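ok so I'm stuck.
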Amino acid sequence: MSGAVTCVRVSGNRASIKYRFDEASGGAQFLQDGGIEVFVQDNRGRARDANAFTPPQAPGAFEAADPSRCDDPNPAPYDTVESGGYTVRGGRVGATG
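replied:
not stuck anymore, here's the structure
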């Protein structure tokens, strides 16, 4: 699955990002034009970074959840990442590895 970002919301070292599934194939084909919201946490080198996500949504549910509005990233149930990391600074988000 791949697609365009529809919103980004930054709060300190955390961010929420929604993106639409412009392409989906195989068992995920029913999610085409749906989307997902992911959350990232940049621990700025003090600890491993973390992420979380909501379950992928089919097109109708994604539209009903307003793809142009990201949720507050602070209460997300974060899990640490094993490798790679995130950068959240100045309203911008990046990823490595």
